[in-house]
Specification:
This protein has no helices and 28 strands. With 351 residues, it is mostly beta strands. The protein is globular, with a radius of gyration of 19 Å.
């Protein structure tokens, strides 16, 4: 394993944007940058040995500042939506920025995804750190966060999120990597990709993408990924607002979830290339987002083009959507001085 680093550019404030390249003995490669502790590229072989970049991303480093798609970024303090920007912690009401329709999304417009993180190399890993001020984006507690990236010679990419707060608060971190197993510059969508999920329940959603609190059985519905299901098969179905959302943008409960235990969430594959990604996580849920609104919302891409809708799919391992307002959901509450620790693993494979 080798890790290279170089200055890729600078922020509008003049801070250096650093690109980290992790390359293993197979020739597979992961690139990261310190804006949003982001994954910039993931390169691994198809069934014929052709190595291509399968992660969506941008040509210019400054494009990672403020991109609406949050491509490859570490998202927080709370990933996903919080209804009407309202939450209560320890009987104290907090009002958060409303930045997505009537709701708060991904920690706000200046959430972790759009922050400058400090980066360092520790032997065979890259570690990004960020300190969020007390009441930053409306959240209580100074929060010290680390995003740790490990990549090995078996093509396993592991992300560990660590956090500790000075006050009781809420934390829900994830990575917003978009996959296209044809290759990010292929001009092909992910509608022919197939997914299997270890999930028998999906959250019922209202028309503004907030959970009603009810969990629906997926069996026999367009959300049944118990066997391989192609995204394009039901991308226009009416059930649970798929058509209204222009595709999948839904939170699935992981079967058999146990706190702090790494479990297989699912597998994503592309028959045309023979690439497969197995996803493991210690989190209770995964949000499936099929890139329904990528057209017109992304800067120029690495392949010097612009992404269209469904150019990539994100499988965001995290807590339940709007958990702060649903006491029956697994809690994202973090007590002062307790350690938050969750992992995501992407196993890059062929079939």
């Amino acid at each position: 394993m080798e890790i290279l680093q170089h200055i890729w550019g600078s922020t509008p404030e003049g801070e250096g944007i650093i690109l980290y390249t992790m390359r293993n003995s197979r020739g597979s490669e992961v690139q990261l940058c310190n804006i949003g502790a982001s994954i910039v590229s993931v390169k691994f072989a198809d069934r014929n040995g052709n190595i291509e970049d399968v992660a969506l991303g941008y040509k210019e480093p400054t494009s990672y500042v403020g991109d609406g798609a949050a491509s490859g970024k570490s998202v927080g303090r709370v990933a996903g939506r919080i209804a009407r920007g309202h939450m209560v912690i320890d009987d104290v009401e907090y009002r958060l920025e409303v930045n997505n329709g009537p709701n708060h999304l991904h920690g706000g417009s200046k959430g972790f995804a759009n922050r400058y993180w400090e980066g360092r190399v520790e032997t065979n890993r890259v570690v990004f750190s960020y300190v969020a001020e007390d009441m930053e984006q409306g959240y209580p507690g100074e929060l010290v966060v680390e995003a740790v990236y490990d990549f090995d010679d078996e093509d396993n990419l592991e992300i560990t999120y660590l956090a500790k707060s000075s006050k009781n608060t809420v934390v829900n971190l994830t990575n917003h990597l978009y996959w296209n197993l044809h290759g990010e510059g292929s001009d092909k969508t992910i509608l022919d990709h197939e997914l299997k999920l270890n999930s028998s329940k999906v959250l019922e959603m209202d028309t503004v993408q907030i959970p009603t609190g009810k969990l629906l059985d997926v069996a026999g519905t367009p959300f049944d990924f118990s066997e391989w299901r192609e995204f394009g098969r039901d991308i226009d179905a009416e059930f649970n607002n798929i058509r209204n959302f222009r595709g999948y943008d839904h939170c699935f409960a992981v079967d058999g979830y146990e706190k702090n235990i790494l479990k297989e969430v699912g597998q994503l594959r592309c028959k045309a290339t023979g690439r497969k990604v197995t996803v493991l996580s210690s989190q209770p849920a995964a949000v499936l987002y099929t890139g329904n609104w990528l057209a017109g919302g992304c800067p120029k891409t690495k392949s010097d083009k612009y992404y269209q809708d469904y150019a990539g799919v994100a499988i965001e391992c995290q807590g339940f959507s709007d958990a702060v307002n649903h006491p029956d959901f697994p809690s994202i509450y973090l007590k002062a001085d307790e350690l938050y620790c969750n992992k995501i693993v992407f196993k890059l494979e062929q079939f």
